[in-house]
Amino acid sequence: MKIDVLMATYNGEQTLAAVLDGYRKVMPPEQGWQLVIVDNASTDGTRSLIKSYENDLPITYLYEAKPGKNSALNTGIKSLQGDLVILTDDDAIPCPDLLVQYREVAESEVDVSIFSGKVMPDWRKEPPLWMVDSIPLTTAYSLNAGKHSEGSIPPTSVLGPNMAVRREIFERGFRFDESIGPCGSSYAMGSETEFCTRLHGHGYNCHFSERPCVSHIIRDYQVNGKWLLKRSFQNGRGAANRDLRNAPGEFRLLAGIPKHYIKHAAIRTGTVILSLFSFDKTKIFTSLWECSSALGRIYEALKLRGT
Fold first, then answer.
1. What is the distance between the alpha carbons of residues 15 and 92, in angstroms, rounded to a whole number?
2. Which residue range or ranges hold the Glycosyltransferase 2-like domain (predicted)?
3. Would 237 disulfide with which of 109, 219, 288, 296, CB 3.0-4.6 Å?
4. Which letter, b or e, does each residue of 197-213 get, where b requires 16 or more Cβ atoms within 10 Å of its Cβ?
5. Which helix H or strand E contains 206, and what residues bound it?
6. How far apart are CA 304 and CA 298, in angstroms?
7. How far apart are the C-alpha atoms of 36 and 80, rounded to whole Å?
8. CB of 294 within 8 A of CB of 264?
9. CB count, 10 Å around CB of 65?
10. H helix runs in 204-278, sequence order
11. pTM of this structure
């Protein structure tokens, strides 16, 4: 089984060196592998950094000028050669046996087409305990260590830093939705969730194994309340995007916004006000996180109303 690793990068110079150093240490599968990196119009030293590793790694470098991670991934699909495609990020450092573990899982689970591996944190700045206790780390940082046992999982549990699909999925015409996912600093989250949910609707199953694992770099600026609340807002946008595009006629609307979104946001705003009187950092930030997500849903509903 030949394996491809596919990643998109935008101005990834700060983390990409550690990631590529990790791939220099991976055990290659017997039938070989290829690392497809799509530069999504980076303006830093990403291109020259990738080129500096070409003598050490089986890199295929591609360039995609259209902004958006999913646009870049769709460009990379055209250069795939392997039987199994590992999809990852430019801030996810592979464990040395990542490739061989995915091969073994894929060969043993012949009825499965979508795979998810373990994502552990690589904190570059230790987070305060109150912050860790305030938020769902899976949503905030795409971490899942200790959350699943080996076996079937729902498509919503597959995480972008460490997943794999059989290439036959792309050969059958499936592509990433370019209207969702990372694109600049403001976007609706949920790229991988949308993709895997769509595949699941066509009969493809998802399987989790903790054996193929990566360490997800969490940078200093990401251990920050403002960054996290923006992340929650983007997550709310992604949830609304899926709701309203998949079942647009199922909601009672007020000015184009589902009424339960408005009610939920009002309740969460009230919870924020009440939490301030507790003087408890964890309670306050949890309420802010939930309120930000609720407001993100309303924002996305308004945005989609005009389309």
1. 8
2. 5-171
3. 296
4. bebbeeebebbbbbebb
5. strand 206-218
6. 10
7. 8
8. yes
9. 10
10. 225-246, 259-276
11. 0.93
Q: Which amino acid is at 157?
A: S
The single-letter code of the amino acid at 29 is P
> DSSP code of 155?
G
Specify the residue for token string 């958006």. Answer: 68
Reading the block at residue 141, the tokens are: 């940082």
Residue type, 221: Y
Q: Name which of 19, 228, 219, 17 is nearest 125 in CA terms.
A: 219
